């Protein structure tokens, strides 16, 4: 008889859980004993490992974050490099040289932007740039506009850049997007808005050619993912329910998936609408088609991807999405250029960072106590293992389990401090 290391036990439990997703702790313990007869593991120890494990690791044992193929990060900075840590942790950024507190590490424009609703409304009203979200003190500040719809832009450059997404979300070019956009606004569902933006970008990249599509798809699939089902299972936050997911998917498909060719209304299409219809008709590679339009393995995962990676003001940033959380962050993200490029982020060092050290930002208010940080991080599907959490969480105990909640999900919820 031998006692496995925490690491060995963790791996065995992840595999067992994947093979038998419905088992509660006592049955899982019995299975473990049957599969590993040489091990002595108490139920208490197993429970402890399980509650400390990230639900992401349990639900999806395959890597949930992957490197972005062919990503050249020198377009932003040479001061950091991407590193793939282990399977559970995924990727992160490490310093390649000494960075001093207060220094700017890089500046980045968003891959797509799903702004806060107040700003979204201003964009719709022509009071903010439809691309970079910069607010206009007067309508005269908008130096460019979409010739077909009310969208306005800072200048010709912002309008040009908007061609990666706007045509499919333009009231004149793709009128079918209007019900979807009105709906997402009424629900204030930012992850869906981000997914809409990403989808528009991918479909337009597909129209532009293989190379453009490969580059954009590599970025999207590189964003870490926690599926909506997994998220719902481990979270008690009030989020859209399954019926709402379905309704969203229908509108989403009506906007992006296969225009109705036999529809009599097609005859009255404007030249612009015809152009968009042709873009939507162009077949996608099977992998991307499924990732966008298969409900379970595509759409819901896509929403989960957006949830995990949105910056706090609502943009998706390719390099920024590589930053991991730490409760003692050594880097921060700011929107400094409010007059000319509100969506642009500047990543700055909060402390001296040595070569080889990882960069951390914080996903929750770092002034919170251990239990509140732990509960706050639940939305990202992991339990923080930073030095500070190890120290402050040493004597922390999950709240007592309630009667009748025997399954693993409830155990985990208890472990995450949300009941
Ligand atoms: Zn702009
Ligand atoms: Zn337009
Ligand atoms: Zn922590």
TrEMBL record:
InterPro entries: SET_dom, SET_dom_sf
Keyword Ligase appears in the UniProt entry: no
Domain of life: Eukaryota
Gene Ontology molecular function terms on file: histone H4K20 methyltransferase activity
Keywords: Methyltransferase, S-adenosyl-L-methionine, Transferase
Reactions this protein catalyses: L-lysyl-[histone] + S-adenosyl-L-methionine = N(6)-methyl-L-lysyl-[histone] + S-adenosyl-L-homocysteine + H(+)
SET domain span: 78-364
A biological process from GO: methylation
Record keyword Metal-binding present: no
Name this protein carries in UniProt: Histone-lysine N-methyltransferase SET5
């Amino acid at each position: 008889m031998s006692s496995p290391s925490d690491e060995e036990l963790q791996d065995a439990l992840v595999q067992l859980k994947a093979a038998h997703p419905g088992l509660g702790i006592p049955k899982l313990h019995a299975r473990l004993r049957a599969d590993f007869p040489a091990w002595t593991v108490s139920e208490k120890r197993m429970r402890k490992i399980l509650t400390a494990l990230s639900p992401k690791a349990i639900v999806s044992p395959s890597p949930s974050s992957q490197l972005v193929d062919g990503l050249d990060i020198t377009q932003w900075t040479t001061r950091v490099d991407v590193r793939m840590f282990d399977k559970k942790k995924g990727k992160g950024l490490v310093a390649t040289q000494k960075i001093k507190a207060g220094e700017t590490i890089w500046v980045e424009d968003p891959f797509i932007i799903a702004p806060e609703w107040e700003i979204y409304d201003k964009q719709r009203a022509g009071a903010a740039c439809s691309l970079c979200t910069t607010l206009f003190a007067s309508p005269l500040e908008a130096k460019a506009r979409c010739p077909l719809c009310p969208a306005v832009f800072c200048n010709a450059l912002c309008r040009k850049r908007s061609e990666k997404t706007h045509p499919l979300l333009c009231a004149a070019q793709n009128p079918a997007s209007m019900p979807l956009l009105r709906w997402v606004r009424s629900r204030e569902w930012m992850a869906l808005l981000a997914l809409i933006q990403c989808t528009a970008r991918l479909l337009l990249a597909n129209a532009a050619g293989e190379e453009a599509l490969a580059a954009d798809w590599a970025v999207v699939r590189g964003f870490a993912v926690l599926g909506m089902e997994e998220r719902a299972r481990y979270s008690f936050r009030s989020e859209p329910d399954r019926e709402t997911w379905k309704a969203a998917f229908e509108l989403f498909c009506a906007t992006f998936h296969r225009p109705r060719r036999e529809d009599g209304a097609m005859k009255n299409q404007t030249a612009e609408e015809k152009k968009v219809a042709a873009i939507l008709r162009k077949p996608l590679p099977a992998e991307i088609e499924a990732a966008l339009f298969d409900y379970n393995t595509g759409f819901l995962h896509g929403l989960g991807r957006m949830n995990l990676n949105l910056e706090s003001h609502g943009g998706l940033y390719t390099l920024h999405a590589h930053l991991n959380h730490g409760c003692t962050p050594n880097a921060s993200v700011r929107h400094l250029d409010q007059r000319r490029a509100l969506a642009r982020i500047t990543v700055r060092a909060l402390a001296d960072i040595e070569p080889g050290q990882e960069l951390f930002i914080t996903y929750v208010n770092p002034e919170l106590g251990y239990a509140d940080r732990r509960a706050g991080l639940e939305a990202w599907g992991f339990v923080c293992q930073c030095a500070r959490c190890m120290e402050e969480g040493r004597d922390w105990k999950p709240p007592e389990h309630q009667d009748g909640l025997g399954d693993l999900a409830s155990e985990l919820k208890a472990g995450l401090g949300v009941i």
